[in-house]
Design brief:
By secondary structure, this protein is of the alpha/beta class. The protein has two domains: 88 residues, Winged helix-like DNA-binding domain superfamily/Winged helix DNA-binding domain (Arc Repressor Mutant, subunit A); 244 residues, Vaccinia Virus protein VP39 (Rossmann fold, 3-Layer(aba) Sandwich), CATH 3.40.50.150. Helices cover 50% and strands 15% of the residues. The protein has 15 helices and nine strands. Strand 3, helix 11 and strand 4 form a beta-alpha-beta unit. Helix 1 packs across helix 6. The chain is globular. The N and C termini lie far apart (66 Å). The structure holds S-adenosylmethionine. S-adenosylmethionine binds next to helix 8 and strand 4.
Length: 360
């Protein structure tokens, strides 16, 4: 005899509401795809610079095909990203939307995220294979575009928050940097944080370590472009195997949750600090309880985790903490395990990140 399924009554209103939600999420996914194309081709920036425009004008100015641009403008208008005036046929990027779509380096700019999401789609098949067989996707599988997008994404923090909010919220760190300190940025990526610090605190000396060599090449170029190469250098190194020196300040910006061996990395950071040294750690602002992470940000964090953070760690047999895996409780536990004695969460109004000031 077959097991009888329990009869379930369907609440029609709930069903309708949920179908509406799936519809708007599906629409959002395609809107993001079109927005990503607009970012890549400079269409938003063109509209921001030139004001109300027809498809012919946008295509002529950006060297793109009018038929495609017309379809894109229609999609962006339908999504509410652009305004459309049927009388004149003009499309406008409202000034309030420009911060998200056209202001490169600004605090609300999404272009870097769009570029990363585009690159994540390239490894989709490998992610699916990891679901089926375990393992993960190595960093080297992601196209250059991913690293370009990540640099633009985190530039938003380093251009708008690092010097304006984060360092002033840690007076002891600020005093060390002003006096002249040795600073290491572990997992430095393209090096933008150190370049900003070196410009603001020229008496200090800086070295960035990253285990992914291509980022080091670009970071070095960035330091030269910013004319800070006399006090900033970059080195390809897996910091979990040890740091070459002891420093006054060590930073990790969005690194530990990605690490193959997070406690091992923290131990090396602990060993790499002078007695009075300070470790600054930026990581995801999230709860240790899934039910408290429900919502759009939690969904983005989980998505990025599957498409990069957890998956690149698991590719190397790592802990695979994931984007939400280094929450405040675990920061305290793992730092203690690594030998640190004091962890202070710096009070900030930041829905994405927590900042910790940690001492040996
Ligand atoms: C999400 S990215 C952040 C990069 C940069 N801090 C930023 O905010 O733009 C994390 C970086 O940490 C690096 N990383 C992870 N584990 C590392 C380790 N054990 N040693 C050195 N770098 C590491 C990765 O290669 C990657 O570039």
């Amino acid at each position: 005899m077959q097991n009888a399924q329990p009869t379930q009554t369907v609440d029609a209103a709930k069903q309708e509401a949920f179908i509406g939600k799936v519809l708007s999420d599906t629409s959002a996914a395609l809107t993001t795809t079109l927005a990503s194309i607009g970012d890549r081709l400079g269409l938003f920036k063109d509209l921001a610079a030139h004001g109300p425009s027809t498809s012919t004008e946008v295509s002529a100015r950006t060297g793109t095909n009018e038929r495609y641009v017309r379809e894109w403008l229609g999609g962006m208008a339908a999504a509410g990203y652009l305004n459309y005036d049927p009388g004149s046929g003009l499309f406008t990027l409202p000034v309030e939307h420009a911060a998200a779509l056209a202001q490169e380096g600004g605090p609300f700019f999404f272009g870097g995220s769009y570029q990363m999401f585009r690159a994540m789609n390239v490894v989709m098949d490998q992610v699916i294979q990891s679901f089926q067989h375990g393992g993960g996707v190595p960093q080297s599988a992601y196209p250059d575009e991913f690293w370009d997008g990540l640099e633009r994404f985190s530039a938003g923090w380093f251009e708008n928050l690092l010097l304006q909010q984060w360092i002033p919220a840690m007076p002891d760190v600020q005093a060390k940097l002003e006096r002249g300190a040795t600073v290491a940025d572990v997992g430095c990526g393209r090096g933008r944080a150190l370049v900003k610090l070196a410009q603001a605190f020229p008496k200090s000396r800086y070295v960035g370590f990253d285990l992914f060599p291509p980022t080091i090449e670009q970071a070095t170029r960035n330091a030269v472009t910013a004319e800070v190469e006399d006090r900033v250098r970059f080195e390809a190194r897996d910091a979990a195997r040890g740091l070459p020196d002891q420093f006054d300040v060590i930073t990790t910006f969005d690194v530990v949750h990605d690490a193959v061996d997070p406690v091992g990395l923290l131990r090396r950071i602990h060993a790499g600090l002078k007695d009075e040294g300070i470790y600054i750690c930026l990581d995801t602002n999230c709860s240790d309880r899934l039910e408290q992470n429900i919502g759009p940000l939690g969904a983005i964090f989980h998505g990025v985790s599957v498409m990069y953070c957890m998956t690149t760690s698991l590719a190397n047999g790592g802990a695979g903490l994931g984007t939400l895996g280094f929450h405040e409780r675990r920061v305290n536990e793992m730092c203690q395990e690594a030998g640190f004695r004091f962890v202070r969460r710096v009070p900030l109004e930041n829905p994405f990140n927590n900042l910790y000031e940690i001492r040996p």
